[in-house]
UniProtKB/TrEMBL annotation:
<keyword id="KW-0456">Lyase</keyword>
<keyword id="KW-0704">Schiff base</keyword>
<comment type="pathway">
    <text>Carbohydrate degradation; 2-deoxy-D-ribose 1-phosphate degradation; D-glyceraldehyde 3-phosphate and acetaldehyde from 2-deoxy-alpha-D-ribose 1-phosphate: step 2/2.</text>
</comment>
<dbReference type="GO" id="GO:0004139">
    <property type="term" value="F:deoxyribose-phosphate aldolase activity"/>
</dbReference>
<dbReference type="Pfam" id="PF01791">
    <property type="entry name" value="DeoC"/>
</dbReference>
<dbReference type="InterPro" id="IPR013785">
    <property type="entry name" value="Aldolase_TIM"/>
</dbReference>
<dbReference type="InterPro" id="IPR002915">
    <property type="entry name" value="DeoC/FbaB/LacD_aldolase"/>
</dbReference>
<comment type="similarity">
    <text>Belongs to the DeoC/FbaB aldolase family. DeoC type 2 subfamily.</text>
</comment>
<dbReference type="InterPro" id="IPR011343">
    <property type="entry name" value="DeoC"/>
</dbReference>
<protein>
    <recommendedName>
        <fullName>Deoxyribose-phosphate aldolase</fullName>
        <ecNumber>4.1.2.4</ecNumber>
    </recommendedName>
</protein>
Amino acid sequence: MPSPQLSPPPGQGGAATLAAFADVTASDSTLRRFLHGLPGVDAVGLEARAASLGTRSIKTTAKAYAIDLAISMIDLTTLEGADTPGKVRALAGKAVNPDPTDRTTPRTAAVCVYPDMVEAAKAALGGSGVKVASVATAFPAGRAALDVKLADTRDAVAAGADEIDMVIDRGAFLAGHYLKVYEEIRAVKEASGAARLKVIFETGELSTYDNIRRASWLGMIAGADFIKTSTGKVAVNATPANTLLMLEAVRDFRAQTGVQVGVKPAGGIRSTKDAVKFLVLVNETAGQDWLDNHWFRFGASSLLNDLLMQRQKLATGRYSGPDYVTVD
């Protein structure tokens, strides 16, 4: 069954998109009808295509480009209860200058912290161009009242966050209360102001690929600037298959609305080989327009060290040990 066709003027952005979906979001029943009218996911076919694309090999020159691109797409993250301003400053230093022995190494896209660490991150990053992202909305569980989630978001923005990573209410979504999830995303989007909003689905808790497709469309029609797989705090995080499915969703959403939405796989991506596989997925599914850190990110701090070691190998012909790169 084809998905409903909605055609606001191409490139008109959020206001036109919201207007186009006004009938869809009028009630729980209309939103459910739309989301359950999306094409069902062929799980076997999806996983087979993701596995097939993961076998692609690339030449050495392309690998060098891919490594630098992947570094530039990382949201370097610390989300621990023991975080301190000093730890955040050290992480910001690594984001700006990942390899002190090679100043040609790209900077990462962002540093991601809890709201109370945004001010420290902002001060440490200065005018480097590296963004400050902040998780909000009672991350990672999302179990809080809406006014608490909005206060969390506003605090992060007031402290200087350029990007907000919110988590959806998975309980409401799985119970079929789609309008509640939609309205919560809309409210957080408004509270985010000029900050870009990444909407985290926690795909490992959504149970089915059909639910991941529905969550992707729900997030996009609610105004997400990015859709994100995971918090990195559960057993199943980003996988090639669930990321491929989300890339298909943003591709199809732009084809129907003219609005481009980013994708961020997070959690479990640790090696250069993994990163290259995900970049191939982006190129072959959404296309080159998404091969930029404005539209694609990795939520994978441990990935950076392996990328740096592989980069040094290409430059020198030998591997440096992990002691030759800074530790997160």
